[in-house]
Amino acid sequence: MAILRIEHLSKSFGSKKVIDDLSFSVSKHSIFGFIGQNGAGKTTTMKMILGLIKPSKGTISVCGEKVTYGQTKTNRHIGYLPDVPAFYGYMKPIEYLKLCGQITGLSRHQIKRKSEELLTLVGLGHEEKKISTFSRGIKQRLGIAQALLNEPKLLICDEPTSALDPIGRKEILDILYKVKGKTTVVFSTHILSDVERICDHIALLDNGKLAMSGTLSKIKSEHQQNSLLIEFHTHTDKDLFLSTPLLMPYTMHIEQKDTRIILHVTDLTTAQTTVLRVLYENNILPVKYQVLEPTLESLFVEVVK
Ligand SMILES: Nc1ncnc2c1ncn2[C@@H]1O[C@H](COP(=O)(O)OP(=O)(O)OP(=O)(O)O)[C@@H](O)[C@H]1O
């Protein structure tokens, strides 16, 4: 079932088209990476999902209900972490969550139970310091706890890791991965390695248009490069290998660097059989032999030219 469905969404600010006929859906319990360069239109899209910006065209539905600009009804399904969350710095985390729980209308018992559970989840279970003393990473963790307070079906995080150091980023990604069983996560980013670490589905936005979407594994297999990397012990081994005419029928292009080569081939299976035979018949033991997988970064560069 689709928790979020976006259909033919467009948005212009004056004469500037910022989102152009965007359509994609997010299935239940996925971790969805919404990727795009600065200014691609990620925040604008998220604010339209929250009913905070009026679309020029198209529809959005959350849990099967249509989002209407200016109405907050569908937001009961959503937990939102903005890119720079704001807090009352003089409060402790538990005090802040209690206040949010009261505003949301939770019972005293629910507030106590949920606050303790969520602070433990984000590693702030015993934190007694005031929020004003926290690093940006700790504030983001508290922001996730707050966004999860009303047990949302959809958690939307706007660039939750962008301003963090590698340890802070890892902590946030670990938390998002942990909540996957409880809710559906959509997070925007331009950090591709974060997406590769935890996301199962992605949409890539380029200048307001959808450039790619689907499961990460399917996208990668569709962009399979048919490339083999072989690293030799010596230049003599490499030259001997390359002198074999057998390789030529399958090889489109060869990249060479020191004792490494990358063979770009037409038929990966046949080429692999041939390469292994050539290595064996010439008594060459390579240092490394690898079928090259496309990375999200290489796909991004290929699509966003
Ligand atoms: N209220 C507005 N009025 C005019 N232009 C706007 C407005 N809000 C956003 N834009 C423009 O829309 C484009 C998309 O902005 P948006 O903030 O959605 O991008 P983004 O992908 O979230 O980028 P970033 O990672 O930098 O936040 C930008 O060119 C931005 O300048």
Automatic annotation (TrEMBL):
Coiled coil: none annotated. InterPro entries: AAA+_ATPase, ABC_transporter-like_ATP-bd, DrrA1/2-like_C, P-loop_NTPase. The keyword Glycosyltransferase does not apply. GO terms for molecular function: ATP binding; ATP hydrolysis activity. The keyword Zinc does not apply. Keywords: ATP-binding, Nucleotide-binding, Transport. It comes from the Bacteria. Residues 4-232 form the ABC transporter domain. PROSITE patterns: ABC_TRANSPORTER_2. Transmembrane segments: none annotated. Belongs to the ABC transporter superfamily. This is ABC transporter ATP-binding protein. It comes from Vallitalea pronyensis. The lineage of its organism: Bacteria, Bacillati, Bacillota, Clostridia, Lachnospirales.
